[in-house]
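REVIEWER CHECKLIST
Item 1: Sequence provided? yes
Item 2: Single chain? yes
Item 3: Sequence as submitted:
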Amino acid sequence: MESLGLHFTHYEVKGKGKAPTLAVEYDRGTSTMIEEYCTNISISTVVTDSIVDSVIQRILSIGDSEGKIFVYEVLDAIDIKSKKRGESAL
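Item 4: Structure as written out by the authors:
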């Protein structure tokens, strides 16, 4: 995504999913606990219509990854500092 010159937000989220959970050692390594939730990564970005397909193809070309891509229509974008609207705010 950085190679496309995009700004994005990266979140680490926890949830109950299909991914395996980790075994965590505690009490100086004498006990083991299985995490109840698995850690996932969520990435959000907003791009112009003209590069949506290239961003999707770049994500799909990453070899060993899983997940979902959701495409939403954004009605407007506003840069609070510069007061720009629309594509110029991106």
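Item 5: Key structural point noted by reviewer: The longest strand covers residues 9-15.
Item 6: Recommendation: ____
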